Each structure stands twice: as structure tokens, then as C-alpha cells.
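Progress narrative, work stream C.
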Amino acid sequence: MPALAVTLGALGVITEVEMQCVPAFTLAATEGPSTMTAEFAGLDATLAEIDHYEFYWFPHTDKVMTKRNVRRGGDAAVNPLPRWKGRLEDQFLSNTVFGWLNELAVRRPSLVPRLNDISASTLSAREFSDRSHAVYASPRTVRFRESEMAVPLEAAEPILREMQRWVERTAEPVAFPVEVRWAAGDDRWMSTAHERDSCYIAIHQYVKADHRAYFAHFWDVAREHGARPHWGKMHDYDADYLRSVYPRFDDFVALRDRLDPQRVFTNPYLEQVLGA
């Protein structure tokens, strides 16, 4: 199972899956504005106390929006967001208005730092609880390009600080927040969290904006810290590099050789990340 859990489509066709699930649970959600400096200062305590934690950093500022979710039993009472509030904040503000801001950013890139500061400053704190799927899932209607890297815990702040300096140094207009989240390690050979607790840093750029310089610098910086790319998102890492950050890389390739020696299931992407 550790070899087959993340196959990248390289080992053949899976015809049957049996899934083991946990009992249904609710989540108590606490969300609110903060700063990157404050969040990293209290990171150890947060990771020890909170089941699911992430923040969204607004480039050109030190401001972030935090999300803390604590698990409760499936029979726990819920206090969901009022329907009108969810529609206002999660649909209208986070999608419709955000889309307008990105269109404006494409036309007037010089406004992006101010727009980000305003966006971060207008976010308000909120607390609610609901079934897990209602808290986890968020509507996203603004189209974007994305790249996400899993890095060692200690690398998160240095990478983000360098990206912060680079954005300021180059005046690159980045209107999309950067998602930063944490997850526990596992034993899956090709999992981005293989044998290490990880921080996931996901950068985005509006589909109509030029992402190339921003993404390329992120890939270079993350590579210096042993980053592992999200397999389904944009990156330029190849098999030679990935072998250095996946301890079971050669074992996986050997399994591929045995199960698909004729490379029936290969494609250009697999040749990039696994070799021919």
C-alpha cells in the first residue's frame, strides 16, 4: 500500500478501491486577521493545539487571514454561519468582489499593493461550527494558476520571507493570497509528506496575469529547501532532482519497470518527473 497509494498513474489501471473512513465529525472554526510575524512567533503552540491550521498571506504586506479548525464528535452541536453571512463573505466578497479586484489589478498593476492591504484589512474575525464538509469546502469561482510545494517545517518562514523580499524588490504585482498550511508526515513512497511533517505553500496568480517570473523564483527558492511539488500543480522539477528528495524514488521506479516495462501508461509529464 505505501507504494500504491500515490501512483501518478504510472503503474497501471486501478479497478477497485476499498476506502477506510473515520467516523463523521464536526469542526469548530475560528478565523481572523493577523500578521505573518505573529503567526510564526506562536507556531509551535498552534501546531500542538489545533487540528487543522492554515493562513493566507497577502503579498506586499505582512498581513494574513488565519483559519483554525478543531475536531469535535459527529454528535456535537453545531452553530453554522447564517446563510446570508456565508453568501456575503464566502461567495460575494471572496469570489465576485475578488474577481473584480483581480481584473483591476491586471489593468492597473501599480494598485496591487494597496488593493492587497485593503483586502486584508477588511476581513473580519468569525467563529462557527458545522459538519466537516461544510467547513472544509469553499467555493472558488475566480480562475487562477497555482503551484504548491511541501517543505520541511523549519523551511516555511525562510521561504515566505524571501518571497516577501522578492515581491518588494521586483515590484511584481501579486494580487492572489498565498495559502500556507501544515500536515503530518506519512509512509507513502511518493507522498509529498513522506517521512516528514510538512508545510505546504501554495502560490497563485490570476489567469489573466503573467505568472512566469513569480513562479520561477518560487521554484528556485523552494528547491534550495528540499521542496516536493504537488504532483497535480505547476512546477519544473525533474527526475534527477526529485530522486534527491524522495528516499524511495528508485524503489518506485523499479516497481514501475516491473508493472509497466513497455511504458504503456507514460506521458511527457511522467517522463519529466520519473524519467523515461
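Work stream C, second folded protein:
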Amino acid sequence: MTAVTAPTREAFRPAMHYASKDTWLNDPNGLIYYEGNYHLYYQNNPFGNVWGNMSWGHATSTNLITWTEQPVAIACDDYEDIFSGSVVYDQHNTSGLGDGTVAPLVAIYTSAYKEDSQHAGIQAQSLAWSTDGGYTWSKYHGNPVLNRSSANFRDPKVFRYNGPAGAYWVMVAVEALDFTVVMYRSDDLKSWDYLSSFGPANATGGVWECPDLFPLPLDGNEDLIRWVLTVNLNPGGPNGGSAGQYFVGEFDGVTFRSETTVTEGDQDPARLTEYHWLDWGRDYYAAVSFSNVPDGRRLMMAWMNNWQYGNDIPTSPWRSPMSLVREVSLVTSEGTPHLTQQAVIDPAALTRTVAYTELDVDGIRSVAGGGAVQLIEVTFVRGSADEFGLVIRGNGNEGTRIGIRPGDGRLLVDRTVSGNTAFHGAFSSIDTAPLRAMDGAYSLRIFVDHCSVEIFAQDGEVTLTELIFPDPSGTGVSLYTTGGTAKVASLRLTTLA
């Protein structure tokens, strides 16, 4: 294992993922597209690079790849920390918070009240608004606007619902310790009425957090709309620690009814792999979607870390990146609706490409065209091998193994010798996901950055996201098999600018 010293820690700063300049970040908040800019707000400690002093950091982008850090948007104070939430464009000024000429952006966030507050120990939902495009914010004088007198009522995601009963705002939030999503409605974002609850269901191995609820056409059919409810949990993921799950069903403006629930109440550990997971890796958490995106696209983003070791990853002065933005779709797979995900990539970021076809692999085979930041697209055809795949960010002594075991129907990522793994006992791991062949082949799209690997398998039907901390000189790529042979039908390695 390589001990990474302080002077090299900045070498892990991602090229294709957002990380703050010199502070801590976690959950993405308030994701919204407005007047040509994508706004990423996020949980941020403005005063250090470990969790604490929760405020909303802010970054903007026009292409979802290159982000510009902005000043802190909504700051904690002596009375409250600013926990997760969402932002909506209040186009018709239903809140009355506009200035008469500009409709406001309204943030709905969780106030985590401190000892000096009259609401000490309570988590409740509050508002802030902006009339300058989301750069400066004012807290609403009537906060909190929704208080259940609960210590774990948090993470509101708000959207505009249009149905037979008219248009109104819907909030989904969680009672985290009860494994329950609670839903409310409002006409003005200030007064809220209870609608319904969902849960417990499927994975309940950790607290529920950061829910989202949105419609998608099934198999591209706009006449066949299904609703997707996502909820993140910590711990209890399929490979340990933090993760996100989702349910597919119907929402009538009052109640969400799941069609994909496997277990209700307590989870069954033996059925963990039957649940629908947003990502099978260890480092994809608190995923939520953007509001107000043109053309009805559903774009999601997550915190690329895990609460098991999040405060300890070996980066400085910043700590924690965000995932790539993903466009999600809903397709029928083996008779059941599933999300598929595709990374959003700016073509301008793609530069030199090295391509191969019809490679026979028996053992280890190095290929030219490796790099610290690149897109790898590969299609394997099974031969006699028990396992086949790639080793990325390799230097001969270490590397990250991405393998396929066709007999087990599994995709794996082995980061036990990926570089620095000694900073926390929970980090070193071999993590797996279910994977089935399509027409006898396995296709992977792998985004490699200075401290991460995001894998999109079989057209995004399965994703697996992991942090890695390799020696900066380790940029090699090699193919491998064990117990026999395999064929690589095609391999493209594209340098990312």
C-alpha cells in the first residue's frame, strides 16, 4: 500500500468532477437549471474540510462538467445549521417572495436547530429566496414553515404537480429513523398540508435520507408514465455503508404506490440484491435530481463518498467530490421497470482516442493509451475464462481491478491494491453488482478520474461508483483473464481534457 503524503494529496483533485477549493462538502442540494446555468448547491463546511457548520455551498456550470465555485449561498448561524433541501423556480410568485418584477427562486431546506434556538433539537423545514438568479439569498421571517416537532424530519424535495385537482407544490421529506417518506402539499410554499406516507420498505438497514419523486415515460412512451421514488440510506447499502435505492410506481398527487416493493417493514438481508439500487458502488450517496431542466430531461447527481470513511479520505485541503451528472431513463428489463443511467459528458472534453478491435486475452495483456483521466469503452465476449476484465490506474505493483465473473453473473471492483487504502479500515474492498450478458457480450463505459472510477455497464443498466487513491504515476491499463480466455470485441480509450 502506498502512503500518500501531504504534498501529493492535491494530485487527487478531480478533473471531471466537482470538488470545492479548500473545504468539506457532502449532499448535493437545490439542484436547478435557471437562465442558462445549472446550479449546484451542496452541504458545505465553510470553515474546514471535515463535516460541521453545515451551510449551503454553491457552484455553477453551463455544461455540467466545468464548475465555477461561488460564495456560500445560505450560511449557518448561532441558531441553525442549514441541512439538505431543494430549490424551485416560483414562476407565478405563489410565495409572494418575488419583488414584483422578478419571480423568485425559493429554497426549501431543513433547519437543524441549535441549543440557543427556541426550537432546540428539532429539525423542521424553512424557506429562503433569491431574486438575482440564485446568487444571494434571504431567509424567510416566518421560518420554520413546516414543523413536526421531530428531531429527524429532514431533506425536503419540492416540485410542482399538475393533476385533475389543479396545480400545487408537493414536498417529499423523511422521518429518517422511521424509514418513512412523508408527503405534503402547498399552494404558496409557506402553508403545508399532510398528504400521505410511504415506507418502511425494502432496504431499512440505516436511516432514510434525501428522497426524490419524479415522473418518467416507460420505454420512451409518453402515454405510459411511471413515478420514481428515490431514497438514500446510511448504512445498509448492497456493499456496505451509504447507498441509494428507488421504487417505481404511481403517484396521484396524494399517495405514491410502489410496484417494485420486495419487502415491507424490516429488510431481509438475504434479499438485498433484489432491491432496486441507484448504484451498487460504495461511493454514490444522497442522489437527487435537477429541477427545471429543459426538454423534460431527468438529471441526477450524488455525493461521491461514503459515511464509513468520508471524513478520512486522503485529500487536502478539499475533501469529497461529486459524481458526474447522470441522465436517467426508465426501461423494462426482465419484465420489471428499471432505471438506466448515462453520464452527461461535454464532447469538448474528449480528446485523443486509441482504439482496438478483436483482441484475444489469455492472462495479462497491457494496452497503450492509459491515463489518469479518461473514458474507457470496452466490450467483452466470454470465452473459457472464469473471470476477465481490466486493471486501471496500474503501475505494475498496484491497480484497480474491474472484473466480470460470467458464471456468477457478477461485476466486481477490487480496490484492495488500488493505492492508498490504509487511511481507514473500511475502505479496502471488493464490491460487486449483478450483471447479465446481452447477446453474449458485456459492455462497460468507465470514467476514470484522479480519485474515482464510475462504471456504466450494459448501456447504464448497472452502475458502480468507487473512490480510489492511486499513485499519481499509475496510469497503465491492462486486460486480464483467469482460468481461460476471453475476447475483447472493441476497446476505446479516450483522454479527457
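Residues 1-7 have pLDDT under 50 and may be disordered. No further action is required on this item.
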